[in-house]
Amino acid sequence: MGKAIIATTTLYGGKSDTRFGLALKTVEEAKRNGLDIIIIDGGSPAEVCQAMREKGAKVVNQEVKGFGLSIRQSLREASCLVGIDGVIIRLEAEKHTLVNMLPALVSLMLKDNIDLLKLGRKNRDDYPPMQKAAEGFAILACQEFTGLKWDFDFGPFLLSQQALLYFLQYDGEYGDLWESLDIPQLRIMRDGLNVKYQEVDYVHPPEQAGETGPDMIFKRLKQMSVQVTSIGAEAKKLGFWK
Which pairs count as long-range contacts for 62-67, CB under 8 Å and 24+ apart, including other chains? Predict the structure, then answer.
């Protein structure tokens, strides 16, 4: 396997945060699988950042507040660490159950000279019902807009250095939230880079089954709205639909 690095972002309230515990597992799994990991942290307590460092992650403070800005900082700094021929893996910090699949995916990237390897889930049966419903609508809408049978609501992907430029050049014209992960991927496809879609046997951490309630409902609805409206507009601009 060639050199590869995981790029992710975090912001936790403290060590009791369920997602923090999952992030520690991700760092442990990364090291176990021979993968470096860089974390851009948006303001977690010092003891949280220190614990992630002690597990083997490189943790860097976020330079400027903002979701899209944190994503681009993580990818930019990962790029500097991995080298020109390396693979950059964008992964949410809590998805530790996916890490042991990454070495094989990195090998596929390098063997087939892939620029963007977009990942999807084979099923979403282990997700909370409200999240599953919101994601289901967003996925179907984005598939309709683009003609791509992708799992649009699954965040992880692998990048070459050439494809990375599309993410770094995105200027947030659709709000610079979750769409900052999606819009560059459509532009990569438009320009004819080598793109592959790969479904994986991802298992959602059972600890996240309790992520329900009114606040989470509003978050899911906002995410769905941002994603559907931005991908719909960009897909039309790029000629995916008239």
Answer: 62/9, 66/172, 66/176, 67/176, 67/177, 67/178, 67/180
Q: What are phi and psi of 33, to 5 degrees?
A: -100, 10
Asked whether the beta carbons of 129 and 210 are under 8 A apart, the reply is: no
Q: Can you list the alpha helix ranges (DSSP code H) found in the chain?
A: 18-32, 46-54, 67-82, 102-111, 129-146, 161-168, 183-190, 214-238
Per DSSP, the residues of 173-197 read TT-SSGGGGTHHHHHHHHTT--EEE
Residue 142 DSSP SS3: helix
Hey, what are 128's tokens? 């909370």
Joined together, the tokens standing for residue 36 give 């470096």
Six-digit token string for 92: 């949410």
Q: Which residues of the chain have pLDDT under 50?
A: 1
What b-and-e string marks burial along 8-46, b requiring 16 or more CB atoms within 10 Å of the CB? bbbbbeeeebebbbbbbbbbbbbeebebbbbbbbbebee
The whole-number pLDDT of residue 142 equals 97
Neighbouring C-alpha atoms within 13 Å toward the C-beta of 111:
8
23: closest CA among 35, 33, 12? 12
pLDDT at position 209 is 83
Side chain identity at residue 238, one-letter code: L
Q: What is the pLDDT of residue 1?
A: 45
**Residue appearing with tokens 């793109």:** 195
User: In a 3-state reduction of DSSP, which class is residue 237?
Assistant: helix
Cβ within 8 Å of residue 179, ≥6 positions away: 226, 227, 230, 231, 234
Contacts of 80 (CB under 8 A, 6+ apart): none
